[in-house]
Amino acid sequence: MGSRIKQVRRLRLVSALSGVVLAGVAVAPAHAETVRDQQWYLDAMRAEQMWKTSTGKGVEVAVVDSGVDPDFPDLRGQVLSGKNYSRHPGDEHSDYDGHGTDMAVLIAGTGAKGSTTGSYGLAPGAKILPIRVPDFIERSRANGDGNPDDYPTYISKAIRYAADSDAHVINISLGSEEHSKKLDAAVAYALSKNKLIFAAVGNTGSGTNKLEYPAATPGVVGVGAIGKDLKKTKESQYGPQVDLVAPGASMIHTCNGKTGLCESHGTSDASAIASASAALIWSKHPDWTNNQVLRVMLSTASGPISGKERTDDIGYGAVRPRIALTDPGDPGPADEYPLPDYQKGASTATDGAAAKPSTSATAPAQVYSDDEASALLWILAGAGVVVLVGASGGALALRSRKRRREATTAWPQVPPGQPHTTAWTPPGHPGQQPGQGQPWPHHQDTNHTGRP
User: Fold this and answer.
1) Which uninterrupted H or E stretch holds 399?
2) Which terms does the record give in the GO molecular function aspect (predicted)?
3) How far apart are CA 305 and CA 374, in angstroms?
4) DSSP character for 269?
5) Of 186, 327, 406, 435, which has fewest CB within 10 angstroms of its CB?
6) Do the beta carbons of residue 84 and residue 132 sit within 8 Å?
7) Domain 7-15+31-336+373-400 CATH class label
């Protein structure tokens, strides 16, 4: 029996005209800001500071999706030859609905479209390996070319192709309730080939909240979404499949829409940001294994404010590649997978790995109480607190970290686009660094119409 297969992000076009409505969705008002000025998540993560150390150069990220357009201005020179499994016209460089290109821009956009109109990915030096899978979502329409029941088969093929390529990271911003031993085996094979797989956990957190694969597959890093208020977004799914969270709300970026500028939200976006974070770290430490990169991502993540090891809402916390780049700590054993859901001895054949625990549709636990400040995630970096995972991937613990003086050297050029050079002042008093003074402003979650 087929089930819904989803690209787990929602999208709306942003117009430069105040008061314009596109497709029944209210658009952002007129503004004089550059596109880069509106990419709040890059400011929150201090992207320009990280780019002094790493841009993701030398790392390939496989994007398993609808294809990636290599002629898109902010991706020119970033997209490699990949693989096509779809019967849509064209090949992996023909994006049949724009989703794959959007994810690639969030990962490796260079801002080459222009100093005012270009947008950046978190890892602008990384390369994109496009792997186009069938259009399962539109199966009920004339242009659909994938049977939903075949979803695990094609995702498995895509993962195996990426595993045999030079890609380091595999991003899958797709999800389905369909699962198979083939998918388990493909994931196990990719891990054995020193790859990291990130996948969106899904956008039905305020609804059915049913497990989606491959995010719920052992060995895959399931990524949920947080908003500007640093809390899990309402749509982001919850459960034991959530390993990390990343920004996934009000994501402004260039796109192939009518206006050329889109605002998206969802765990698709969050997965792309997590994948880009891994690319930054791996570029700085090319001798690390997949296990070591992931272990450092976990050890530098900002954990639940309650002090728990993890929660079903945000997993082990939000990705903080800046900390991973400046003070990664001990990356631990090269050959031990750091998450407990994956058995080290999992077969790469048909047996696969044991399934992650199932989750229910009960109401999610609060990450913060109503009277707590939303001062987690990057805020903790300013407060000198970091969450650690033991070298063997064990329990999390809090420790203090001595503050370091922020570097004041000029931001590097990120070819071929122009770097963002406008100084940013975070919420709070002028001159404060992120994490001091007021927390991020609360973001009102809005459920836009369109695909889940």
Assistant:
1) strand 396-400
2) serine-type endopeptidase activity
3) 9
4) H
5) 406
6) yes
7) alpha beta
Residue 268 appears among annotated catalytic residues: yes
Rounded to whole angstroms, the Cα distance separating 84 from 81 reads 10
Q: How far is CA 61 from CA 32, 125, 169, 289, in A?
A: 33, 11, 5, 15
Of 86, 94, 95, 99, which is the active-site residue?
99
Distance from C-alpha of 423 to C-alpha of 112, rounded to nearest angstrom: 20
Q: Mean pLDDT across the stretch 136-145?
A: 53
Q: How far is CA 276 from CA 198, 372, 384, in A?
A: 10, 30, 24
pTM: 0.75
Residue closest to 82 by CA, chosen among 140, 167, 197, 181: 167
Sequence-ordered list of residues with C-beta below 8 angstroms from that of 190, at least 6 positions apart, any chain? 159, 160, 162, 163, 170, 197, 219
Determine phi and psi for 42, rounding to 5 degrees.
-70, -35
At 157-198, the pLDDT tens digits run: 999 999 999 999 999 999 999 999 999 999 999 999 999 999
Give pLDDT tens digits for 259-290. 889 999 999 999 999 999 999 999 999 999 99
**Contacts (Cβ under 8 Å, ≥6 apart) of 198:** 169, 170, 171, 172, 220, 221, 223, 271, 274, 275, 278
Give the β-pairing of 10-13 and 221-226.
unpaired
> For residue 378, which phi and psi values (nearest 5 degrees)?
-70, -20
99 is catalytic: yes
The reply to whether 88 belongs to the active site is no
CA angle 51, 54, 58 (to 5 degrees): 130
Catalytic hit among 268, 275, 277, 299: 268
For residue 180 the two structure tokens come to 């198979």
Q: In the 8-state DSSP scheme, what is residue 129?
A: E
